[in-house]
Design goal:
The chain has helices spanning 3-9, 24-36, 55-62, 80-86, 98-106, 112-119, 132-136, 138-149, 175-186, 220-231, 259-271, 317-323, 340-351, 388-402; strands spanning 13-18, 40-45, 90-96, 124-128, 153-154, 158-161, 167-171, 195-200, 205-208, 211-213, 235-240, 252-255, 278-281, 288-290, 311-313, 329-336, 355-360, 369-376, 379-387. By secondary structure, it is α/β, with parallel strands linked by helices. Helix 2 (24-36) links the parallel strand 1 and strand 2 (40-45).
């Protein structure tokens, strides 16, 4: 479980609504994962949901009584639909069937869960789960659009194998993904209304059709920052070099291969409205490329036959962005092998950026932890070794604090 989930869900009161779909069995794991993240979980089930998973299961997992009846006498004033949500930080309905989405979209209140969602004062999030035909039906799509317009957060669905044996859209997000989504939803939003552009990962410079020059960057730090920016409320575009990392939800991803392609993608994104507020250059961009890559594989005719490669410089993406008349607020990254602060400060000044983030040790490439040095005109400050998600959240808080007001 990532640091973001543990921090943003600690002590939160979550009402977990479970409706009558086969994915209800996953709600048991979801309840446990929410508790592991530090949340207090109270389960409310529809009558149909009890046909798939018994209330006793959720009571055993959460240690709390499960509510299924709007006339439940355990609530002193018989108003469970009001009292249960009054102290909740959020209601998460997972799975949310097509029937429930229709009820919620039209304000129907014929059972405890539907009535509670209508009477709530806290945010509502729903995780749709249904057969692909039901999900794609125009009625369901209208209902989802109506809910989104009403401010309900729609988490998923995703495409995959379904209980009916078919494959397609309608599969509920996995419990771990839902925990992350809920944590991001409840995170502070200091970047609300801001647009952030990032680069991440390595670049690959071809020598011939099967060989190239690259580096050890995994992209993990950049992807973590992209997710943290999105959780902080920003509209995020991520220009990614070659990496197999999954795109953070809600982030627009542009895949590139070479430094020149990354440069062109960044400039196109900056030229597109609305204006970019911040540019975070995390990618490990190759400084040089082969001047004339071979169109055919270079053959070795003897042990002494070594090709001579001529190199030319790649464009300096960060410096180019910082020099623009409409330049966003820029953050650079650096990986130095010696004299970290001095070299980092020199690089910051040369690039013309207000903040440079230095990786402490090149061995951090590919690992899940890192240690950073923040360098600005006033000096430097160390962010101690931690999970990259934790460092990303700390860095995004710094960016939000330093960003000029619009």
């Amino acid at each position: 479980m990532c640091y973001t989930a543990r921090m943003n869900l600690q002590g939160k009161r979550i009402l977990l609504g479970v409706t009558g779909g086969v994915a209800a069995y996953k709600a048991a794991e979801l309840a446990r994962e929410l508790q592991r993240a530090g949340a207090h979980v109270q389960v409310v089930m529809t009558e149909a949901a009890t046909r798939f998973v018994g209330p006793v299961t959720f009571q055993a997992l959460t240690g709390e009584p499960v509510f299924t009846d709007q006339w439940d006498v355990r609530i002193a004033n018989n108003m469970a639909h009001i009292e249960l949500s009054r102290t909740a930080d959020a209601i998460l309905v997972a799975p949310a069937t097509a029937d429930f989405l229709a009820k919620a979209a039209h304000g129907l209140a014929d059972d405890l869960l539907a009535t509670m969602c209508l009477a709530r004062e806290c945010p509502l999030l729903v995780a749709p789960a249904m057969n692909r035909q039901m999900w794609l039906h125009p009625a369901t799509q209208r209902n989802v659009a109506r809910l989104a317009a009403d401010g309900v957060a729609i988490l998923g669905p995703e495409s995959g194998e379904q209980a009916c044996g078919e494959t397609g859209m309608g599969r509920m997000l996995e419990p771990a993904g839902l925990v992350d989504e809920l944590a991001d939803f409840l995170a502070p939003k200091p970047l609300a209304g801001r647009r952030v552009l990032l680069t991440a990962g390595p670049t690959y410079e071809p020598i011939d059709p099967v060989r190239g020059i690259t580096n050890l960057s995994s992209g993990k730090m950049g992807f973590a920052i992209a997710r943290a920016c999105r959780a902080a409320g920003a509209q995020v575009t991520l220009v990614a070099g070659p990496t197999a990392l999954a795109t953070p939800r809600g982030v627009t991803r542009i895949d590139v291969r070479t430094a020149q392609q990354m440069h062109d993608a960044v400039m196109a994104a900056l030229d597109a409205p609305p204006r970019t507020d911040a540019f975070v250059a995390v990618a490990a961009v190759a400084d040089w490329r082969v001047a004339s890559p071979s169109e055919r594989k270079l053959k070795k005719s003897s042990s002494h036959d070594v090709p001579k490669l001529e190199f030319v410089q790649n464009p300096d993406i960060l410096a180019t962005v910082a020099r623009r008349a409409d330049a966003p607020w820029c953050v650079g990254f650096a990986a130095e092998s010696e004299d970290l602060e001095a070299n980092g400060q020199a690089k910051r000044i040369a690039k013309g950026v207000p903040l440079l983030v230095a990786n402490i040790g090149h061995e951090t490439f590919g690992r899940d932890e890192n240690e950073l040095l923040l360098i600005d005109e006033h000096g430097s400050r160390r962010l101690p070794r931690a999970d990259k998600a934790q460092l990303a959240q700390a860095l995004v808080a710094e960016i939000a604090q330093r960003l000029p007001r619009p």
